[in-house]
Amino acid sequence: MPTKIDRRSFLKVLGLGGAGAALAGCDRPSYATLEEGEEQVFSYLAPEEYVVPGIGVWYASTCLQCPAGCGVHGRVREGRALKLEGNPDTALNKGKLCQMGQAALQTHYNPDRITKPRIGDQEVTWPEALAHIQSKSGGATAWLTGAISGHQAVLLDTHLHARDGGGKHYAVETVNAQAWQAACADTIGDARPELHIDKANSVLSFGADFLGTWISPVKFMADYGAFRSAPRGVLTVIEPAMTLSGANADHWVAARPGSEAAVALGVAYTLASEYGVSTSALPSGAADAIANMTPDRVMELSGVEAQTLSKIAATLMSNSPSLVIGDGRYETAAAAMALNMMLGNIGATITPGVDLVPADLAMRNGSTKALADFAADALAGRIDSVFITGANPAFTASGGLKIKDALANIPLKIGVSMFEDETTQLCDVVLPLASPLEDWGTHVPSSGAGRGEIHVQQPLMEKLHPETLGLGDILLGLAQDAGADGLADFEDYYGYLRTAVSALIGTDQETAWQAVLQAGKVQAPSGERAFTANGALNIQIADTQAPSAGQLTLITTARQGLYDGRHANLPWLQEAPDQISKAVWDSWAEIHPKTAAGLGLKDGDYITITSSAGAITTRVFLYKGVHPDAIAVPMGRGHTHYGRYATGIGVNPLSVLDGTQDVRTGEFLATASVRVQATGDNRHLVRLMDVDQQYGRKLAVTISADQHRRNQTNNQGSA
Amino acid sequence: MPSLLGNIFKGWTDYSKGVEEGGHHEYEHMYAMVIDLDLCTGCNACSTACYAENNLAVVGEDKFGARQAMHWMRIERYFDEPDLDKTEATTDADTQSRGASFLPMMCQHCNAAPCEPVCPVGATYHTVDGLNAQVYNRCIGSRYCANNCPFRVRYFNFYDNAESWPAPMDQQLNPDLSVRSKGVMEKCSMCLQRTRAARDTAKREGRELKDGDIQTACQQTCPTSAILFGDLLDEDSAISKVWKNHQVKLGTYKQDKENPELRGYRIFEELNVDTKVLYLERVREV
Fold first, then answer.
1. Which residues of chain A lie closer than 8 angstroms to B65, CB-CB?
2. Per-residue confidence band for A579, with pLDDT thresholds at 50, 70 and 90
3. Interface contact flag, A211 B41, Cβ < 8 Å
4. How many beta carbons lie within 10 A of that of residue A660, not counting itself?
5. How far apart are CA A14 and CA A313, in angstroms?
6. Structure confidence at residue A16 as a pLDDT band (50, 70, 90)
């Protein structure tokens, strides 16, 4: 784009006549206007006094790319946010950040952001949109959000309570730890205990991808760094398809989908029979379930051999303290907790969490059960209007849940979103949301490692799109319109937040507020929880048998990266090769080479995966990190409306789930029985590397732990 | 700035000296790296941080498939089953029972870099910081360097990548370094701009540069702290200690360790390119 440089603009660039830019149409030369004082000589950019051109300034804020809520530092130069780093002052992520956090910049600068409110297809002004909402939103209202915490959650409750028609809040997260939390609540009376991977000498995971997407992956990865240094901890992972955690395991065991609980009980049985570990202190029901789970039965249900169970038991016994985690189905998590109780990990690697004293700030945990409840309420006509933000139910809903019918049954749907997606397509009114880097907020991290530390989110820069509004401001405006008490004085969310945080720290001095912003966190008063023993545990073991001929079990897996699909519009993450398959820009189905041979499939063949809820067609990726009875498709792609980088790329495996719910938690199970059929097409799956062997070259070398232990004084010990 | 021919001759001289007298260098600093493969989880945080820090272009599926991606840092993943114990009975050849091996791979900043002497215009050379630098304005795109790189870590701009940053994405670009145009080779610079900034800061504050002042983007974000960066000429730096502890010496194509069991190793050492990235072996229980 060549621009004509004339003398005048040239002088301007040289720093002459910056203020003279306002003197439009003045053709007199700069030296004349300068002499007469109409212009001054100073930088073309007239920055604020604390901005030095060319020098980056760092502001503390909070990452909202997933519910973990890590603290970040954002680098700002000349008024633009350029780079995010972890905030080293937080107890949670200690200066570290994952790829999703790094890519938050692209969420903010995304070219497909919504910039203006719209009603139907018509762009309107904010007053018009709000008036429309006001006139139509009688009756029962609802908020459908992702996991939400802090003062935004307080305002959301305030808004719902202030309405005459009442209202309900549904927090929806596809990737969650509901089963684990339910099991923890049932066994130790604390749904969110603190996990200490760094203090454990062995970790046994049943499908809980703590290095990838589980609860607070950056914290767990930082802990994992300590876990692997002297003495080196041993990681064992048992799951049907390899996760990032499984890919880093010392010992990875493939279990038939749904049979993880059986394997966990089998390990407990082996501990009791081979090492005499007592099961008497377990809640009633657990001991019986363990006693019934003989190694033969485990083999029958999961395909895991008795000697594997012995090996796992030996690892746990000789590397104490251990930590056992599990998620997916309730019984898996419950069996994992039973193992923790047998091994004496309660109080050692699992300690009580803390309760915030301002309890209303606590995280509203997201679940898929909430989406099922929402759909049921909507279909029954119990919802007259709904605000949807931070969730994309039309995309993430299990195929068996008729979410579109449910949404169609709500007279007024308001999408509060940064992007047009599958859900905003179905909304009557869409309000443009400011990005997390332009907004204020407080967030309670999903892991309580900070013992009451609440992370503060502050804008890193001016809004890119002047007509967008932050979630807090929208909530405050709605609550004020609904006539909520005590909010009339606040002009904007900033004012509200400032007052609320001042109340939290007990002073409203400017210096104290600045200190909070500088630290990016505020220490809220918190109370230590205590574990309570529980009487009974109900572990129902599913009868998982090998699928019948022509059938496989589909597993939808989550990956750090595209996550549940919310990050599919970020090109950095689309182009970041998947950790396992190394594929980019497309979906794939992971299948065991033996199974593929049985179906006559080779790498890159297209297959159609058909369940009772629907069908998807994608390519196969063959490798041995998936159980022969399973076919795994990572979620995240397959968007139909999500901007230029996501639309029409890949498939959405969630759409073929049949909507079966876990009995105890009501969560949608991430598995479905499917038929697989080759379409006859084949195209090379684009990925980082087509070889997966080193052919004897010394690239990534592995040594035995025994050799490592002999020389463990030589740990890297990097800071 | 020496003349073009002078630069080329100097490159040749340095290279041949580096080969003949192992470890030869006339550096003020010798920046190097350690990557602990036992801590690396293969999560991609480093490579994404590199995209953000170094203005790397996103190319899309087709160009990626044509090996035209611009990731200065890539995480290679191997499914080799290491032969740790031949007597192991439970090793089931049908499962990936020891997970995957991840290998972060970026420019190794060789002391005797094979990319340097082949450049017809001296566009790649060694700085006094011991880093292998690429002068974008000098590069004419012969691609000899990429051809001669045993690690395949030089990336060529086959296209003008302007469409990688549709407005307002261009506002994210890091102003501390350029956006490369079509016909230019680029590669990991070990975040040279951060080195410069740290040096300026130290100067402004009237102190010497100290170990830990400079963090590369990949090191700073790595959730498990698997990456360490520092000056090998500084005897007391953390990185010098790791190299010493692992008894790895520069300027040789064959390590002669007192304790050959130590984990440190350099990739393709036998090529005598004298890389400055030390990898620590991945560890697995038998």
1. 684, 686
2. very high
3. yes
4. 16
5. 73
6. very low
Query: Measured between alpha carbons, how far is A169 from A185 in angstroms, rounded to an integer?
Result: 22
B284 contacts A702? CB cut-off 8 A:
yes
* Distance in angstroms (rounded) separating the CA atoms of residues B177 and A70: 28
Rounded to an integer, what distance in angstroms lies between the CA atom of residue B8 and that of residue B14? 10
The dihedral over CA atoms of A475, A455, B51, B45, expressed in degrees to the nearest 10, equals: -120
The kind and range of the H/E element at A59 are strand A57-62
Is the Cβ pair B172, A585 closer than 8 Å?
Answer: no
Q: What is the pLDDT of residues B235-270, one digit of tens each?
A: 899 999 999 888 888 888 888 888 888 889 999 988
- DSSP strands (E only) in B24-165: 31-36, 74-78, 101-105, 124-126, 132-134, 154-156
Q: Which of residues 555-584 of A touch B (CB under 8 A)?
A: 560-561, 571-577, 579-580, 582, 584
Closest Cα partner for A678 from A604, A621, A605? A605
Strands A118-119 and A122-123: antiparallel
Using an 8 Å Cβ cutoff, are A220 and A210 in contact?
yes
| Sequential DSSP letters for A620-667 | EEE-SSB-TTEEEEESS--BSSS-TTTBTSS--GGGG----B-TTT-P
Residue type, A584: V
**Distance (Å, rounded) from C-alpha A152 to C-alpha A163?**
17
List the structure tokens of A541: 């073991």
Q: How confident is the model at residue A197 (pLDDT cuts 50, 70, 90)?
A: very high
State the amino acid at position A602 in one-letter form.
K
Distance CA A442, CA A340 (A): 34
In this prediction, residue A508 has a pLDDT band, given cuts at 50, 70 and 90, of confident
Strands A194-195 and A526-528: unpaired
Regarding beta strands A118-119 and A350-351, do their DSSP bridges make them parallel or antiparallel, or are they unpaired? unpaired
Distance CA A558, CA A653 (A): 11
Q: Specify the 3-state DSSP secondary structure of B229.
A: strand
Count Cβ–Cβ pairs < 8 Å, chain A vs chain B: 290
Q: What is the pLDDT of residues A636-651, one digit of tens each?
A: 999 999 999 999 999 9
Residue A677 bridge partners (DSSP): A608
Q: Whole-model pTM? A: 0.89
Residue A717 pLDDT > 50, yes or no? no
Those residues with Cβ within 8 angstroms of residue A504's Cβ, 6 or more apart along the chain or in another chain: A358, A454, A522, A524
SS3 call for A99: helix
Dist. CA A680–CA B172, nearest whole Å = 44
Task: Name the nearest CA neighbour of B268 among B254, B281, B282.
Answer: B254
Q: Measured between alpha carbons, how far is residue A204 from residues A178, A237, A260, A274, A639 in Å?
A: 19, 6, 12, 18, 35
Disruptive mutation site among B55, B219, B283 for chain A (greatest number of A CBs within 10 Å)? B283
Nearest one of A337, A163, A314 to A265, comparing CA atoms: A337
B102 to A305: CB separation less than 8 angstroms, yes or no: no
Handedness of CA A27, A30, A36, A38 (dihedral sign): positive
Strand order in the sheet with A57-62: A57-62, A71-77, A80-86
3-state secondary structure of A229: coil
- Counting Cα atoms < 13 Å in the Cβ hemisphere of A122 gives 7
| B79, closest residue in chain A (CA to CA) | A692
Q: Which residues contact B9 (CB under 8 A, 6 or more apart)?
A: none
Instruction: Give the three-state DSSP class for A559.
Output: strand
The Cα A292–Cα A318 span in angstroms is 25
Chain B interface includes A708 (CB < 8 A): yes
Q: Does B201 touch chain A (CB under 8 A)?
A: no
